[in-house]
Amino acid sequence: MTPPNSKSQERPAQSANGILMLLVGLGLILAAPVVLAVVAVKIVAVILAATLVSIGLFVLCGLYALQPNEAMAILLFGDYRGTDRKTGLHWVLPWYTRTKISLRARNITSDTLKVNDKRGNPVEIAANVVWRVSDSAQALFDVDDYQAFVDIQVDTGLRDIASHYAYDHGEQVEGEESELTLRADAEDVAERLGVELAKRVAIAGITIDEARLAHLAYAPEIAGAMLRRQQAEAILSARRLIVRGAVGMVESALNDLGERGVVHLDEDRKAAMVSNLLVVLCADREAQPVVNTGTLYG
User: Fold this and answer.
1) How far is residue 255's CA from residue 200's CA, in Å, rounded to a whole number?
2) Contacts of 113 (CB under 8 A, 6+ apart)
3) Per the structure, how many domains does the chain have?
4) How do residues 79-112 score in pLDDT, each as one tens digit?
């Protein structure tokens, strides 16, 4: 007998040809009317016919059919005798207990969870996980309900993974730009989630084929503030790009003027020209020209 709380392991079960046993069972049942007609003694004929029908029904009760990616766990009075994975019609003794289990890939989308990311910001997150049963004995005998077990482990694993990452790079402190984030590195986060879930559900004989983030957003109570922060960061980034380009253009203009000898500028005039060009290039609105009829110095 298998000791309690030990790890189960799937092994192949022995079964007979179901087509042959189907013919035997039907043959026994169809033989009953022939016996009634042939045997002269009615009591004996009835007893024989009833016996044949009973044996035929007994044989038919041992039949079971399996489709592709289905398995049948077979037990004898609670003792695990193996799992049949062969497709088609099979037969075992009727007093064997049979439990069918699907080996097909299954898809689960977790509930949207509200968790705190690495920076303590509340975020909403959900995952889509593709899983399948790889060991029927572990799935049936090592956990109480393997489907509920997978659901709970997906939620637990997702909460744990989300707490190890910041939502995005804007939430990180200086010097941590290379750190992975939930929004920018979703593929890497999903890969780690799949590895973590595989460890968690291995006890139930479950294999994780794929894990992906299905939903990711800031929680409603901070979504407005975070949107304004992201907008401000976008404006600052655009401003930096504009100023960098404007400085390059001014430098190029001064170099061209000096090389071609178009005009000779002293330091004060260069400073005024740089100031005017930067105002024109970096302004939000079109620059309004001002005609100066005097000189730069008065």
Assistant:
1) 66
2) 124, 125, 126, 155, 158, 159, 162
3) 3
4) 999 999 999 999 999 999 999 999 999 999 988 8
Q: Is the residue at 232 inside a domain?
A: yes
Structure token pair of residue 205? 């004989």
Q: Report the 10 Å Cβ neighbour count for 211.
A: 25
Domain end point (choices 218, 240, 268): 218
Checking phi first, is residue 61 left (phi over 0); if not, alpha (psi -120 to 50) or beta?
alpha
| 211/187 same-domain check | yes
Mean pLDDT of the chain: 81
Could you tell me the pLDDT band of residue 222, with boundaries at 50, 70 and 90?
Answer: low
φ/ψ (deg, to 5) at 289: -65, 145
What pLDDT score was predicted for residue 42? 80
DSSP assigned state of 166: B
Q: Identify the domain containing residue 176 by its residue range.
A: 106-218
CATH of the domain at 140: 3.30.479.30
**Could you give the C-alpha distances from 158 to 126, 177, 180, 212, 271, in angstroms and in order?**
8, 23, 16, 11, 58
Question: Which residues does 37 contact at the CB level (< 8 Å), separation at least 6?
Answer: none
For residues 2 and 118, give the distance between their C-alpha atoms in angstroms, rounded to a whole number: 45
**Does the pLDDT at position 223 exceed 80?**
no
